[in-house]
Structures are given as structure tokens and as C-alpha cells.
């Protein structure tokens, strides 16, 4: 049995390093595992797994939230939010960097993805950061680290996936990420201010006039209302995540079409097409990972790990071991793939050790955020490097890594705080109806 799993894992890793798409690599590794275990019926079993893996109603929220993010990006909501925060903070040393982080945090409360936020914010923030004397590594770290908040602050695509596996309330999982997300924003802001103050090339900015602030507020306030429209109904129990995502698309379209007027009715079909293509990519990864995860489960890996953990480990030690595993996997795999691989394997042990699954979800998602900033395959590193180059900055991966390492360490600190102070993740969900 263990030999079958090792062969499957080797095939998956080899295909990944050959540049084969993640979904195909996971699926082929899983199919091989099923074949070695079940024989000729492997393809039939794999097809059944792929079909059933998308039947969960909660997964419908993924394409809806992704599409909402596309609408908001085309409506230039991010740029107007950035102008709002910049108008109030630019005169404070480090304030432009903090404005960038706050923009990322608010966008995270709309989109549910990280790489898209980093790319979106980088497109308009890099030039302004340079204008006020921020070094290129610090600028890249701010944008990459802030962008990674997209999967922690609700809504979160990984939390939706976690909910479909664990059968925990998606609303509670969403809300659990708020306080840890705000802690991360606070830590990032403190570091940004300190790093900027130490830079001799910093440029002092004049305070924005109240006329500028009022104008920025009038334009940016609509962007601030979107997260409230998502979080309040979820917290109050008025709507499910899927219903909230559908309402979010409607509100985003109203803002883009009639308030900001950055999109027209002719743009709706291309926007929907982009949302569908991005969603299919995520759902395809889910299908492939479900096949691989099912093969690992059928071979008995999850039972072996569960038995060992319950008999030999304390809950904290088990979680720390999984944190280390997540860190290593984050160097090579994309976040959704990591979650879909480890959840079927870890879940029985988590249940056996009576670990709160909502608490662990936050620890897991922060681990994935760390992976987004970890070379050699940190997706946010590549995203900010690509945006910086497209804007004419002398960027390379080493500069991007230098800038993102401090933010990766601050994510690790946030993860450790949640590990030892579980109420940071559990207090708000405990207050929900």
C-alpha cells in the first residue's frame, strides 16, 4: 500500500517539475494510485470522484466570488480605495505603504484570492511608492504580503474548499479569519513604518487638502461598502456565502456601471468570460486533487496518520508538525492544491485529537499565505516581479524575495499567535447565531 502511494507521489512531483499543469499532475498521480490499488476500474473511479467533487452547493460560491473580483477590478475600485487611504495617510512617514496595505485588506474582503489582489494593487501602487522614496524591495514586499491577505480575510476561496471537506459552517470559517487578518495588517503596518523611517531616501509628503480628502472619500466609500455587504449578512446569519456572493456581483455591477462608470454593458460578457475561465482553473485543480486525495485515503495513509497521531502526539505537537509540512509544500505547490492534498489525510487525525476544525482552518490558511511568499514557487513573488517589470522597474526575483521575506516571517508570527491563542480565531465565530 505504501509503495503505491510513493509511486503516485513521485509521478505527481515529476510532472509538476516538468511544467505539467497542477490539476493534471494531481489527477494523473491519483489515477495511478487508484490503478495500483483497484486495477482496471481506476479510470471509472477517477471519473466518479471528479463528478461528485463538484456537486457541493457551497462550491458554487467560488466562481461567484471570483467573478465579483473581476467586476471590481474592471471598475477600478482598488485604485479609488487606494486614493482614499492615501489622501488621509500620505503625510505620515510610512503612510503611503500603510495605505497600500489597507487597500489590499479591503480588496481581500471582496475577492477571496491573493495573486489577483497583488497584481491589481501593484499596477497602480508601485509608481506612487517610488514617488515617495520607498525602496523597490520594500514596495514589492508590501504588495506581495498585502495581496496574500486575500485568502484569510473573508471571503476566502480556500475556506470554501475547507468547508466542503470538513462540513464546518462556511460563514463561521469566513468570520474566523477577520481578527488574524487584522493582526497581520497591523504587524505589516508597523514593519512598513519602521522600515521606511530607516531609509535615508524617504521623501516627506505634504498633507492632502480637505477638498482632496472629501473627493477621495466620495469616490472610495462605495468600495468600503462592498465588504460590509459581505461580512454583515454572513455574521448576522441573513444569507449563505453563495447568496452573499451573488448579491456581491449585483452590487459590484451597479457600482461599476452607474456610479464609477468604468465599465459598460458591452463589458459584461467579457467580464463573465474571464470569471468563468479563472473559476474553471480552480475547479479543475479541485477535481485533480480530489482524485489524488481519494487515492491516498483508500490506500490507508489517513488511517495510519490518524492512529499514530492519536496514540503518540498531543494536539499542539501534531499541529506544529503539519505547519512544517505546509511550509515545505508551500515552496513547490499552489495553495488550493496544498489544501486539497492534505485535508483528506489530516482530517481524521484532527477529529481523533479533538482539534477544533475552525481554529485549524485559520492556521492552515495562514500556512498557505506563507507559501505564497516562499521561493521557489511563491506565486505572489512572481506576480509582483512581473508587474514591476511591466512598469519599467529594474526588478528580478532576488529583489522580490528580499522584500517579501520580512512579511513571510510576520505571517509566521501571526500563525504562531493563533496557535497559542485560539480565541483569536474562535471568538467571533462563537458569537454568531
Protein described:
This protein is mainly α and about 425 residues long. It has one domain (about 1-430). It is built from 21 helices and no strands. Helix 5 crosses helix 12 (about 210-235), helix 6 (about 95-110) packs parallel to helix 8 (about 135-145) and helix 17 runs antiparallel to helix 18.
Describe the structure concisely for a colleague.
The protein is mainly alpha-helical.
Give, in order, the helices and strands: HHHHHHHHHHHHHHHHHHHHH
The number of distinct β-strands equals 0
* Rg measurement, Å: 22 Å
Low confidence ranges = none
The percent range for strand residues is under 5%
| Overall tally of domains | 1
Shape: globular
Q: How many helical elements? A: 21
Structural class: mainly alpha
Estimate the mean pLDDT confidence: 85
| Helix residue percentage | over 70%
Q: Let me know the largest β-sheet.
A: none
* End-to-end separation: 45 Å
> What oligomeric state is this?
single chain
